[in-house]
Amino acid sequence: MNRLHTFLTRNLWAQVALSVLGASALVLLISPGESPAAVLIRVAFSSLGGVAVLLAVRRKEKRATGTDTTGLVTLDGRIRSGDVPTDPAEREALRALVAKRLHRTRNRPWALAFLVLLFGGVTVLTAGPRETIGFGILAVAFPVWIYFQGRKQLRRLHRMREALREEERGFTQHAA
To answer: What is d(CA 61, CA 23) in angstroms, rounded to the nearest whole number?
Structure first.
C-alpha cells in the first residue's frame, strides 16, 4: 500500500486518471443510460478545476519546503510513518511542510459543512429515484469518509509537529 501511495504522490497524472475513471464509473452506476464516452469526457472536463487546485497546492508545498517532487514525497512519507529526520535541513523542510498543511486545515469545519450542504442540495434536486438514492448514499458516505481521513491526517500532522518540537528541545538542551 505504501508503494502505491508513493507512486500516486509522485505521478499526479495517475491520481487524475484514477479519479476520472472512478468518478465516471460512479456516474454510470447512477445513470446507466448515458454513453460511457460522453460521461468520461464530461467528468474529465469537470475535473480540470480540481487538477488546477492540486497543482497549485503542490507548487506551494514545494516552494515552502525548498524541495522537488521526490523530496516532497519523502517528507510526506515521514509524516505518514511518524519518522523524524535527523538531518537538520530535512527537519526544517518537514517543519515547514507540517506548518503549511496545518495552516491549510484552519477552515476544515466550514468546508466540510459546505460539502454536506452541497451534496444534500444535489440529492434533493435529482430527478429520478435511482439518482436520488445514489446521490443520497454518496451524500452520506463521502463526507463521513472525508471527515475521518481528515482527522487521521490532522492527528499525524500534530504528532509530527510535537515530535519536531521535542527534537528541537533535545538538540537545544544538548548544545547548552
So the answer is: 27
Who's near 2: CB < 8 A, 6+ residues apart?
77, 80
Q: What would the mean pLDDT of 47-76 be, rounded to a whole number?
A: 91
Question: For the residues 90-105, what does the mean pLDDT come to?
Answer: 95
φ, ψ for residue 86 (rounded to 5)? -95, -25
Angstrom distance (rounded) from CA 176 to CA 174: 6
Q: Following CA atoms 79, 81, 82, 87 in sequence, which dihedral angle do they give, to the nearest 10 degrees?
A: -70
Tell me how far the alpha carbon of residue 70 is from its chain's centroid: 17
Q: What are residue 7's phi and psi, to 5 degrees?
A: -60, -45
Q: Are 14 and 81 in contact (CB under 8 A)?
A: no
Would the pTM count as exceeding 0.85? no
